[in-house]
Amino acid sequence: xxxxxxxxxxxxxxxxxxxxxxxxxxxxxxxxxxxxxxxxxxxxxxxxxxxxxxxxxxxxxxxxxxxxxxxxxxxxxxxxxxxxxxxxxxxxxxxxxxxxxxxxxxxxxxxxxxxxxxxxxxxxxxxxxxxxxxxxxxxxxxxxxxxxxxxxxxxxxxxxxxxxxxxxxxxxxxxxxxxxxxxxxxxxxxxxxxxxxxxxxxxxxxxxxxxxxxxxxxxxxxxxxxxxxxxxxxxxxxxxxxxxxxxxxxxxxxxxxxxxxxxxxxxxxxxxxxxxxxxxxxxxxxxxxxxxxxxxxxxxxxxxxxxxxxxxxxxxxxxxxxxxxxxxxxxxxxxxxxxxxxxxxxxxxxxxxxxxxxxxxxxxxxxxxxxxx
Length: 373
Description:
The protein has 12 helices and 13 strands. By secondary structure, it is α/β, with parallel strands linked by helices. The strands form 3 sheets. It has a 7-stranded mixed beta sheet with strand order 2-8-7-6-5-3-4, sandwiched between helices.
């Protein structure tokens, strides 16, 4: 007998078309030491000052946090020389991206982003009832002309991750300015600079100055990467006063926890600790790139704290084969098929121990005899 589904509340049209975001794995096989290289977390962890600040509020959890996150906004403003009243903080930059979509998108509107861009962009777009428009990259790098060709009167937001995740590539700021100059005034350019602290290129800027001067540009940042506070979920956005005002009207009144505010403010002030994290990344990024290329793997040049590593398509040497081989030895990386990169793995720069083991393990993997077809 065929069963019928009883009547029940139904989500808004389009919600069930959203492909839910799947985070990087955090488990290997039992009994093997785990080296999690799947989520671009810093191997140095958080600043000791951030940990101390987190513990300092442990005896005061009954009261509500400051709904404006003033302490955190002022710490960010002081560090970067910007106005605190043009900053809004969120539960990770993901929340801020969603709030921008919720604030500026309606049914029939469109957003534009690159084909290998952050998966949250189409999720936030569809959740707001709008349509995502994906544009082709050139050499795994966002293409200004492709972006501009996709913009129509329906376009309301352009999302640009710079540097981009998961490719690790970046757009020189002269190109970002060219993109902005080509956009209609009604289009909001969102510069997602989650990995900005790692970039050491003279032609790169995070977008802070453009967000300070242009009426249709915002920059988002995160504490989940170099600051080592992913578990606390802290993001921030800087932009024109009218955008900040609009987002604050939509934002939940207590979207930041007290421990997150305190730890984030302390982390922002510990410049020396961040310099250590940058130095660690600067040492290992070229070393791992050279090692992987030396064993026959392709590596997309990266300016972040991760590498996009491309594997041969031959049987036994694919990204899936490598992933299984690495997991057995406790090395968990990120498969990026959802980003339309089915034969690549995104690998975070880990600790000295993890990186050495990674080189050793992938060398062994590539040296294996080919699997007979």
